[in-house]
Design a protein that fits this description.
single chain, 117 residues, alpha/beta, TIM Barrel, four-stranded parallel beta sheet, 3 helices, 4 strands, 36% helix, globular
């Protein structure tokens, strides 16, 4: 099960801790919003869920700032990988880039970023 927070980190870290204390490993990933209401969030600061990995979500949508291009996504993910070892990420929102070359570009950029390349 995943949790998808964007604000109130203290509450969400306690929720995950309580769930996993009752059913170890049930929450196995955190999808952290770093755009729109979660703009300014970093998976490396104030979002420590113990051993549960935090995967940041980036926006390709101008209406959910900060919008990032594939190159910007790669750079941001590489920085987070170097700072706190993130190993995954996700992209909001697919609908507007479907049918273009952008999904491939974001995929390659994001893979390179989370691998620190």
């Amino acid at each position: 099960m995943t949790i998808d927070p964007y604000t109130n980190n203290t509450y969400w870290t306690s929720v995950v801790s309580e769930i996993n204390s009752q059913m170890p490993g049930l929450v196995d990933a955190i999808h952290l919003q770093t755009y729109a209401g979660g703009a300014g969030n970093s998976p490396c600061v104030n979002w420590d869920f113990g051993g549960v990995p935090v995967y940041p979500g980036l926006s390709d949508d101008h209406h959910a700032p900060p919008f990032v291009t594939p190159d910007q996504a790669e750079a941001k993910l590489k920085t987070w990988h170097e700072q706190c070892g993130i190993t995954g990420a996700w992209l909001w929102i697919f609908d507007q880039i479907a049918g273009t070359d952008l999904p491939r570009q974001y995929a390659h950029a994001m893979i390179n970023g989370v691998q620190g390349q």
